[in-house]
Amino acid sequence: VVILPTAEDCGRVVADVIAAAVTAGPDGNRPTLGLATGSSPVLAYRELIRRHREEGLSFAGVRGFLLDEYVGLPAGHPESYRSVIRRELTATLDIADSDVHGPDGAHPDPLVAAREYELRLLENGPVAVQVLGIGANGHIGFNEPGSSLTSVTRVKTLTEQTRRDNARFFERPEDVPRHVITQGLGTIGRAQHLLLTASGARKAAAVAAAVEGPLTASCPASVLQWHPHATVVIDEAAAARL
Ligand code: GLP
């Protein structure tokens, strides 16, 4: 657990970990990154874009896999996570668009789309670094409290709290989709390194439950405790209840 004074400091440290993974292997063997949307990783993404532009950090050949996606938003909808990650990260880096993967939320059968995504992840091989935010209720990806600790990619129903939390991204609160496709806790756990970041007092209770509470489906982020390589990078406000 790394506690730093500000969210900007967290962004730099998260970017350091991702940059190290990207530069580690020879070019023929570029890593797969697990990408999260939401506001938590945005400062880290901005820092990676800065390093790409100013320091020549290259992402050529890197593949990205999203954690989750809304069900029912048409392809290209500005708030689909596929569009968000493009806008906030990958379109500005030298990552080919065809190397960025996410669940197909516009598929006529979301159950099929979920299974297909799990298979694509399995075929791709392990994610080197999985970036994670945390919901105020302890969710990771869209694994709401009660999610099986060994779950795989599947369709989930959002809690009202999560829909309210995400309403700021939509014109009207009722526009927030009710269903999502999310990597499961078991899927996420296959990544070689879990890198969770959070900032602000609103996340303090969830962070404390995830890091110091029991391993329980009631706090999905507590699965980090049984992962062999998990790093939590938080600012002082988010660490206040530790
Ligand atoms: C969202 C996403 C998660 C994200 C979390 C926190 O609903 N599905 O991947 O980590 O909630 O969001 P934020 O970082 O905006 O606080």
Automatic annotation (TrEMBL):
Entry keyword annotation includes Transcription regulation: no
EC number: 3.5.99.6
Keyword set, alphabetical order: Carbohydrate metabolism, Hydrolase
Every Glucosamine/galactosamine-6-phosphate isomerase domain range: 13-225
Gene Ontology MF terms: glucosamine-6-phosphate deaminase activity
InterPro entries: Glc/Gal-6P_isomerase, Glucosamine6P_isomerase, Glucosamine6P_isomerase_CS, NagB/RpiA_transferase-like
Database matches in Pfam families: Glucosamine_iso
Primary enzyme class: hydrolase
Protein name in UniProt: Glucosamine-6-phosphate deaminase
Organism whose genome encodes this protein: Blastococcus deserti
Organism placement in taxonomy: Bacteria, Bacillati, Actinomycetota, Actinomycetes, Geodermatophilales
